[in-house]
Design goal:
globular, 2,3-Bisphosphoglycerate-independent phosphoglycerate mutase, substrate-binding domain, alpha/beta, Alkaline Phosphatase, subunit A, 17 helices, 2 domains, 15 strands
Length: 551
């Protein structure tokens, strides 16, 4: 396949590098007491906001391929849109459609799973995030899978619940557990055994990403497969016990647990002859568990005897590595991304972030592709993330990312650069307003170092975000849109993303009369790719969303 870019007629591009800085989780909030972005001291961002090429981008809902505009954006779909230059239907929407149309249940993978259980008497296990956040999973997808399993004659099904408190309110786990228990009770008829078998908080159990901490996956393996995590008679007992023992703990950080029956034996460990579905549709936190089930020589932790099971993911999580081998719904096919076009044009590129978001500026930016298009033209830099709670070090690795960026810019190798500062998102997810303020201030300090370097090189800086988070640190009342209060009259911390727009600032002092193109209506993340091409002096491909600059 040959890709080509045509030069702009009247503009040859800036002479220096074009740098896209994604401030992860930094949206435009209500400028109130829960808006850590507004409360933070940000002289650099304030200066950029006074520029002539400034607007706000939609970063949620249908603008990033989600089912509806009530769905918040997330880092996966945000970076897909940033890198692809177009909007593709994403996991949540694709799974919804596959369930409603019945194509999921008519597919070969689902039929194999059911046949395995019916023919060999094995159990069908469902592992995944139990919430309606619609970022990694949706509880209604799980309900549909369970009901169809019962309809298809599966006698035993066990659910291994990963508690959220991150994309939903921070201590809401039991409302989702109760909803699941009602469905399981409904299905426990005609001799069927459908129960919760294990679980844990998503940040302690199973859902690691980018090889940041395989101990998280190991804990999940011990809970789900070996049944050796701390035992409880019910999920309610587990959650309530952990909350008593760890006052102030939120759902995402609760320890792993196993549900046990008579004699303290686990009621539903994953054993030979079983089938397993990982019902998360988002890939980054699903790849490692998939590898644990499918990779014979996995060395990251000691699994013990590996059960002979049939494993499937909700979607294919890595198309290049073919992980997992079996999946229920086809992922979005994202081709001809910005990076690929630039490689064919011979433009050297640099992508960098810390571990927590490294895959976002590589894998997701490149359309869910894990490898490079051309190693001779691409440089990837990953700064290892700390393994401590993010609220304890809200500055994270922003300074080290900035060090690496400035060193690379001074070498003059890269013409197109993308980086991600994870602070606003990862610290925002903790629900700690004070830490989120420091996180945003840390990013601003780093931007203060980056701006003069780009100015000296005659380049251009685009500052934006993939979605909001730190801009809304308190839960809001649905009617008044003011901070919601608990029975004691205190605000409730918010740990999820927001529906707010995100900033878009272009700083290129060498360009006179730089301004936003007013003819572009409802600007969104997918407009950024063509804007990068504008600054590099190229026309956009025909199916890319238009650039945002009037050049």
């Amino acid at each position: 396949m040959t890709l080509s870019l045509r030069k702009l007629d009247r503009f040859s591009g800036v002479t220096g590098p074009v740098v896209v800085c994604v401030m992860d989780g930094v949206g435009i909030g209500a400028h109130d007491d829960g808006d850590a972005v507004w409360l933070a001291r940000t002289p650099t961002l304030d200066r950029l906001a006074r520029g002539t090429a400034v607007t706000a981008l939609t970063a949620h809902g249908t603008a990033v391929g989600m089912p509806s505009d009530a769905d918040m954006g997330n880092s996966e779909v945000g970076h897909n849109a940033l890198g692809a230059g177009r909007t593709f239907d994403q996991g949540a929407k694709l799974v919804d459609a596959a369930i409603k149309s019945g194509t999921l249940f008519a597919g070969a993978a689902w039929r194999e799973l059911v046949a395995r259980c019916r023919q060999h008497g094995g159990a069908l296990h469902f592992v995944g995030l139990l919430s309606d956040g619609n970022v990694h999973s949706h509880i209604e997808h799980l309900f549909a899978l369970l009901r169809h399993a019962a309809q298809d004659g599966v006698a035993r099904a066990y659910v291994h619940v990963l508690l959220d408190g991150r994309d939903v309110p921070e201590t809401s786990a039991l409302q989702y557990v109760d909803a699941l228990e009602r469905v399981l009770a409904e299905l426990r008829t005609s001799g069927r055994d459908y129960r919760i078998a294990s679980g844990g908080g998503r940040m302690t159990t199973t859902m690691d990403r980018y090889n940041a901490d395989w101990r998280i996956v190991e804990r999940g393996w011990q809970a789900h497969v070996l049944g050796s995590a701390r035992g409880f008679a019910s999920t309610h007992e587990a959650v309530e016990t952990f909350r008593r023992e760890q006052p102030g703990a939120i759902d995402q950080n609760l320890p792993a647990f196993t549900i046990v029956g008579a004699g303290g034996k686990p009621i539903g460990p994953i054993v030979d002859g079983d089938a397993v579905v990982l019902f998360n549709f988002r890939g980054d936190r699903a790849i490692e568990l998939s590898r644990a089930f499918e990779e014979p020589g996995l060395a990251e932790f000691a699994r013990g005897p590996i059960p002979d099971v049939l494993f499937a993911g909700m979607m294919e999580y890595d198309g290049d590595a073919k992980i997992p081998k079996r999946y229920l719904v086809e992922p979005p096919l994202i081709e001809r991304t910005l990076s690929e076009y630039l490689v064919y044009a011979g433009v050297p590129q640099l992508a960098l972030s810390e571990t927590q978001k490294f895959g976002h500026v590589t894998y997701f930016w490149n359309g869910n592709r894990s490898g490079m298009f051309d190693p001779a033209l691409e440089t990837y830099i990953e700064v290892p993330s700390d393994r401590v709670p993010f609220e304890e070090r809200p500055w994270m690795k922003a300074a080290e990312i900035t060090d690496a960026l400035i060193a690379e810019l001074k070498l003059g190798r890269a013409r197109s650069v993308r980086l991600n500062f994870a602070n606003g998102d990862m610290v925002g997810h903790t629900g700690r307003l004070d830490a989120a303020i420091l996180a945003v201030e840390s990013v601003d300090l780093c931007l203060a170092r980056i701006v003069p370097v780009i100015e000296a090189l005659g380049g251009a800086l685009i500052v934006t975000a993939d979605h909001g988070n730190a801009d809304e640190m308190f839960e809001l009342d649905a009617k008044t849109k003011r901070p919601a209060l608990d029975p004691a009259g205190k605000t409730r911390n918010k740990t999820s993303h927001t529906l707010n727009p995100v900033p878009f600032y272009v700083h290129a002092p060498s360009l006179a009369n730089l301004r936003i193109d007013a003819t572009v209506t409802r600007p969104r993340l997918s407009n950024v790719a063509a804007t990068v091409l504008q600054l590099l002096g190229y026309q956009r491909p025909e199916d890319f969303e238009p650039g945002l600059l009037a050049l």
